[in-house]
Amino acid sequence: MTAETTSPALVTLEIDGRDVAVPEGSTILDACRRIGSDQPTMCWASTLTPVNVCRVCVVEVEGSRALVPSCSRRVEEGMVVRTDSEAVRHARKVVFELLASAVDLSLVDDSIRAWMAEYGCEPERFGPAAPPSDDRDRRQAGHHRRPTGETAETVHQPVKVDNPLYVRDYSKCILCYKCVQACGPEAQNTFAISVAGRGFDARISTEFDVPLPQSACVYCGNCIAVCPTEALMFRSEYELRQAGMWDPDRQEVVTTICSYCGVGCNLELHVQDNRIVKVTSPDDHSVTRGNLCIKGRFGYEYVQESDEPTPIDEVLARARADS
Amino acid sequence: MDLKLIGAEATEAEKAAIASAVPEALTVEVPGRVVRIRRDLRHYLLPAIDAVQSAVGWVSPGAVDEIARRLQVPPAEVYGVASFYALVSTEPRPPTVAHVCNDIACGPDLAAALGDRDDVVESPCLGQCDRRPAVFLQRAGTDDVVLAHATPDAVLAALDGDVGDDTPGFVSPGPLLARVGNVDPSSLPDYRAAGGYEALAKAIEMGPEAVIDEIVASNLRGRGGAAFPTGLKWRGAAGQPGPRYVICNADESEPGTFKDRVVMEGDPFAVVEALTIAGLTVGAEQGYIYIRGEYPLAQRRLAHAIAEARRAGLLGDDVMGSGERFDIEIRRGQGAYICGEETALFASIEGYRGEPRQKPPFPTVAGLFGRPTVVNNVETLINVPRILLEGGAAYAATGTEDSPGTRLFCLSGNVARPGVYELESGTTLREAVEAAGGVPEEIPYLLLGGAAGSLVGSDHWGMPLTFEDSRAAGVTLGSGVIMAFSASTDMREVVRRIAQFFRDESCGQCVPCRIGTVRVEEAIARANGAVDRRLIDDLDRAMKAASICGLGHTASSVVKSAIELGIL
Ligand SMILES: Cc1cc2nc3c(=O)[nH]c(=O)nc-3n(C[C@H](O)[C@H](O)[C@H](O)COP(=O)(O)O)c2cc1C
Ligand code: SF4
Ligand code: SF4
Ligand code: SF4
Ligand code: FES
Ligand code: FES
Asked: Is residue B190 part of a domain?
């Protein structure tokens, strides 16, 4: 093989006045990061095909009438990109405000909160949040109740707790499509969930909103791993949060290798008070790319079976008895 | 694929409906044995959902299982697609449902008079504004029908099965509409006697490159809203590697628009001929007509025209003796304005949710099934035979320099003779409205271009109806909507209804449009005096700049124009 075929051609573009050369096929986001200029992202993930739906990463490209999503748009020779123009700042500000006005963003990454502060977001200006609704899973496309304008409609709704392993709190769902991608063709190939409904009433759903145990779900937890807002959450984390006992400051992450089979998936055991409370796998791990199966993700009970029950065990045991 | 199904059994009626829409398995004969070919059947998903909905009136868990099994599409995705469409119900519903238009031409009265019933639902514009108020009857197990000039009694009778006669609306023809109302839309011989299929013969004789040259020379621009030069679009797709597709966009769901329906009902062979020319010219073997579900008559007439053309060898393996293969399939939309957006239309045909795709890539490079695709509006296409018969240069010499030819305008509202008016490009707004019997002094406001267009006041009466003049005036002709309001029209209610429309029709994919359309509607509902202009301005700018597709880009433009006119 010659050197030319192994290293793709470089494309030169200008970002905020600085020249940058990146391999052909890179996205504008890649190019920005190459020069240390980070951009906000919510629906993008290093392991998934960009769906470019959240629009918080938009940038200005000279010659383009609308802003373009930096996470998916490929670089072109001579492109002139601005990531901090008034138009970009305005669009990102309003997009974040819209999200925050409709969705519970309390558990998003600190970096997102920093971006919102940077743009001076004031989501309250759309009015006080409307109370939660319990009919979002049954709304007919093309119809909605006429608003009074006194409150701002939200996606707030009851948490779905229908299995012992994880919960779905769609009040926190920004509809980034990542869980659908992970459950479907990009990782798990199980297709237990899809986007259903339309417009503001679009939602992540199983067929006819059947509970997870009746769906195709195999509890790999790969959807939990990609969710940017913790709408999808380990049951253990959820119960400990409900009990006021979830405490990341007291947690450490232990890296190990899953002992169930010979694949050798890397596990990150999140341990609080000597109890495993959550399991992840690194996104950049060459084998897992963040994905696991039910055994690696949830099959850790046996590790702590023989010990004396701790307060954490009691909370979790109560939750298990409920379901 | 190893699918986990719901475990619900489909009824015999559901199974039969699905079987009618989906081939069981493809087989080919190889000497001595039959080989089954597995292929991706996903693009039968919309027809399968349509078939079940049409046969039994809703899509049950058993039907979803049956579709999932036959198409090898996971049940969650079947449900995800079914629940995207307004005409599809995933809960039991009465077998006949009246979709009563309460959009801006029809107004709220009919729906209000019918009151709260489980077989009456409110509907956005049904494309019958010339014959307001309109009702679309979705009838399980039998043909759907439209009631024009509907009264509460007529709707109640129709719900009981008693549907009266349908009278067509008014048409003021020019060269494009010459056959509408004069030539039997069901007769191929009559169509040919009236000049039909001469253009296809000529196109075959000329060859694709010469045809494209003529279309380019004609300076024909798309009538679907974006005004893109048709010749360049065709040349773009023809230059890409095959297979290629051509699509006639007959989704016509822009409030106030009904011209394409009138063409399809009155001159269906013209649409079929024009799409055939497009197919042969760009080198496509398969064409689609994507027609909105609320147009049952147009759909039947097109289906009949396609069947007749096939029988006469004008479609099929050897089109008109050219040696070229081309055929057309009709795809019926299921109640989603967004599926008129070309990339959403691809997704819908492919069996996915009608969600637009970020451009680039453009359809001429990667469109339907990822292949080079030409999408044209119905009206755009029927200009093609005229251009080929008259010559591109001669066509370019008509109308104005930048807007040659004629245009179809949908005149409705406060005019004496609402209908489709074919007008020479360059006709002024005043002339158009007066042609329809409107009195400018009695029309304080007009809607131009549809819900994605803008409201204008009396200062636009002198504007020539061309691309260039409308652009200079900062408005759009869009899909040819000219809706006149009277002094007694509640304009705030008109604007509110338009905001409601976009909130209902957003696909929901991208944040600025999904949530922005909600906030715009709320802001209008909240305002009892003036609206919060800064808020609307902020939303408008962000939606225009950051949305994925044209729906989000234009969703607040009427609201903005209303603020400028002092209506809000
Ligand atoms: C929300 C939305 C809805 C649209 N609906 C239609 C439609 O119903 N019919 C149509 O021809 N074009 C519609 N368009 C425009 C199409 O995307 C496309 O530009 C057009 O079909 C191209 O045909 P033309 O070049 O012949 O105009 C729509 C665009 C948007 C953004
Ligand atoms: S746990 Fe796995 S199978 Fe279940 S929904 Fe999430 S990704 Fe799909
Ligand atoms: S549940 Fe999480 S991953 Fe799934 S769409 Fe919502 S925010 Fe995204
Ligand atoms: S702009 Fe609206 S309709 Fe278009 S992709 Fe975004 S949400 Fe969907
Ligand atoms: S991160 Fe680019 S659109 Fe969501
Ligand atoms: S048919 Fe009612 S507004 Fe068009």
From this structure: yes
Q: Hey, are the CB atoms on B78 and A207 less than 8 Å from each other?
A: yes
Pairing of strands B26-30, B327-332: unpaired
d(CA A66, CA B359) in angstroms, rounded, equals 11
Q: How many domains does chain B have?
A: 5
pLDDT of residue B145: 97
Q: How many CB pairs under 8 A join A and B?
A: 198
Tell me: do B497 and B474 sit in the same domain. no
Pick from B125, B159, B193: which residue ends a domain? B159
CATH number, domain at B540? 1.20.1440.230
**Closest ligand relative to B505 C-alpha:** 4
- Give CA B431 to chain center in angstroms: 27
Q: Which domain holds residue B512?
A: 491-564
Probe site for chain B from A27, A98, A210 (most B CB atoms < 10 A) = A98
Q: Please give the distance, rounded to the nearest whole angstrom, from the Cα atom of residue B203 to the centre of ligand 1.
A: 25
**Residues B461 and B496 placed together within one structural domain of the fold:** no
**The pLDDT value given to residue A320:** 79
Best of A189, A207, A220 to substitute, by most chain B Cβ atoms within 10 angstroms, is: A207
Ligand 2 centroid to Cα of residue B158, in Å, is 47
List Cα–Cα distances, B442 to B335, B415, B445, B485, in angstroms: 35, 10, 9, 8
Domains, chain A, in order of start with CATH, read 1-126 (3.10.20.740), 166-322 (2.20.25.90)
Starting from the CA of residue A44, give the closest ligand.
Answer: 5
pLDDT in tens, B537-556: 999 999 999 999 999 999 99
Rounded to the nearest angstrom, the gap between the alpha carbon of residue B181 and the centroid of all alpha carbons in its chain is 22
Is the whole-model pTM more than 0.80? yes
Residue A17's DSSP bridge partners are none
